[in-house]
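look at this:
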Amino acid sequence: MSAEAAVKIVTEHSPEEIARVKEWINTEEYKEKNFAREALVVNPAHACQPLGAQMVATGFAGALPFIHGSQGCASYFRSTFSRHFREPAAATCDAMTEDGAVFGGQNNLFEGLENAYALYKPKMIPVFTTCMPEVIGDDLTAFIKNAKLQGHLPEEVPTPYANTPSFNGSHIHGYDSMLKSILETLTEGKSIEGKCTGKLNLIPGFDGNTGNLREYKRILELFGIPYTLMADISEVFDTVCDGTYRLYPGGTKLEDAAESVNGKVTIALQKYSTTTTMKWIEETYTGEKVTIPMPFGIKKTDAFLMKLSELFGKPIPEKLKEERGLAVDALTDAHQYLHGKKFALAGDPDYLIGLVSFLLEMGAIPYHILCSRTTKKFEKEMKALLATSPFGAQGKVYINKDLWHMRSLLVTDPVDGIIGDTHAKWAARDARIPLFRIGFPIIDRVNLHRNPVVGYQGAVNILTMIANKFLDIKDETCEDQWFEMMR
């Protein structure tokens, strides 16, 4: 390309000015200005509502997620799941464009539902929205009713829907809204007075770790507790490779979800991603309803198992007692590699509660704790958790901040490592500290979503990842005289 044809730089800066600014953004002065901004978000530690809705919709057997909005939005959700899980993320979209923005998207929805059912024969079509139809005020209630009245979709096909604007809330709120709508639709007319299935309804919340879901199922099977795992993505986003493509490879059976209204117990493992769903379940379902923290670490796993034992009158299996002993031994053997080290954390509120609890157990210091879209209730809960341990005394909680804020914290008040998803890698690199990848999405490493981070085995997995990385750094950076066989 000739110099004349090259794109002209709008503003040119001298190498000296670039170097000056590069140093300045690492200062306390810049941090103060950074934390004062209000109208700009840089690298948020959350995704948008419809992505969470697609996670739920994908977790039901034979369900085809249907996005009422633009094709670009649909591609973003699907590509994010495909990059994280390295699996296909089946979904369809009614591809609204400029005419839909002006005249409304009802015709797009009609044509999209008709084509989706004709081509893919789904058992259920959960519908959720993106920004465009929300801004113009599309009425999904009327649109879906009209689609069935006019014969675009058979009346008997369940079509739950949720309003999930990307400009409000986050992926956990989309998860919550879509799950509530699906359960409302499937359980309608199924409640029978006096009937009890004897089953546990387990709601894991928004969790991109298929290993976690498999660990929950393994624990329940060891207990001998019959269960329905809601929005079960473990077989959908972690399926076999045997040469056969399965459009609907797994998920919660619709009939099991429909019968959940008559269950013995309903447990939610994430308070912040199931708020409206659990409020509705409290009013609608029979049996006991419980919300408890995710079982991170020893203490919270103990609480989960004891609650199962209490609710179902079953002793804790010997196998799980043995696993606890092995985990305590592993944590004792390696606690010195985490003890006293400072950590920054960024992620979803329920994950942060669990991870901070684990670090406190290990004598580590949760120092910077950032949640980019949450409430004062979370801040209060996190501060109360920090107050339970002397290792939490230095911890600071930052709500509704982003990863550019986190960068300022890391370069002005350093820590030994940061726990978060792939988006934290830039801040970690600038601060020259290791990133321990736990959360969603993880798109720059492989198979981490298959390794559970909950339960006793999850505690060992987290410890092993963190301790070994610190040992790697020690070997890679120490002087020759300190390069030893044993660490």
In short: The domain at 322-480 is CATH 3.40.50.1980 (Rossmann fold). The two ends are 55 Å apart (CA to CA). The longest helix spans residues 455-477.
